[in-house]
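Following up on my earlier thread - several people asked me to post the actual chain instead of describing it. Fair enough. Here it is, all 315 residues.
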Amino acid sequence: MTMAIKSTSGLLGQLPSVRGELRAYVPLARYTWFRVGGPAEVLFTPADSDDLSGFLKDCPKNIPITVIGLGSNLLIRDGGIPGVVIRLVRGLSVVRCVDDEIVAGAGALSVRVSRLAALAGIGGLEFLSGVPGSIGGAVRMNAGAYGKDVSDVLVSAVAIDRAGLSWERTAEEFCFSYRKSLGLAKDTIVIAARFRGYAETSGKITERMDEIQQFRFGSQPVRDRTGGSTFTNPPQDEAWRLIDSAGCRGLRLGGALVSEKHCNFLVNTGSATAADIECLGEEVRRRVFHKTGTRLEWEIQRLGCHDRWAESCNA
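Reply from S.P.:
Thanks for posting it. Predicted structure:
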């Protein structure tokens, strides 16, 4: 049964019944770390994987579907996102241990997975404590930190396609590359992942996690409204170094700022719009290219329309 909603949208009448929650015109800024962005035409929070599968199976195929997790590496444009936005939390966030492996739902925090692994004496996953966001996004973008990527520890993952069919594939079938999973279709949703570590004492694992957190808090603006690393590192180089060399550290545009602490982070100082942040990022890219000849690529995912429900929503 569809739960009560706070406002209405003509789109709701075209959608199948769910056990989770369907809400219309929901501001999405509260669900992103930048705290900016327009509304979802409809926001769907599935109760569990079966609820999600049933919705996808019966949802008209002409209705756009966008999936978000915890919004750590995400910039939602000011016009919002037309169609249905699916947010993976609640019933898709269970984490459990199976021998030397960890099985985690897509909505589980990466840091929570690393902590449970430490308690279970499973080493090799502590780098996840330095990866902001949730497991679903981490698998899709092959997230990494401190010398390791998801592809190094992933055994397999379960996903659901637009037809509502679920399947499990090995890590090799995802065809991982730097910050990409080339074997995962854009409209396919990761719902769970299995990671393998190795036996080690909890004390040693926790010690490494503490070192990661100390380094992270000392070198990154983690207490600010930011979206994590803005640009991917070019081959044999580092984005922050190129940004710094182009004189962009501390650069401002409206309420957006290139962090003084780590210049591959953009920050909402409190009054920024999504346009401020994106335009600042593009200015950084322009200056870096002019200075070094290198074109930085966005690591942060930019979604939605510049103007509400504009034709340019896929720009």
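The longest helix spans residues 274-292. That should answer part of your original question.
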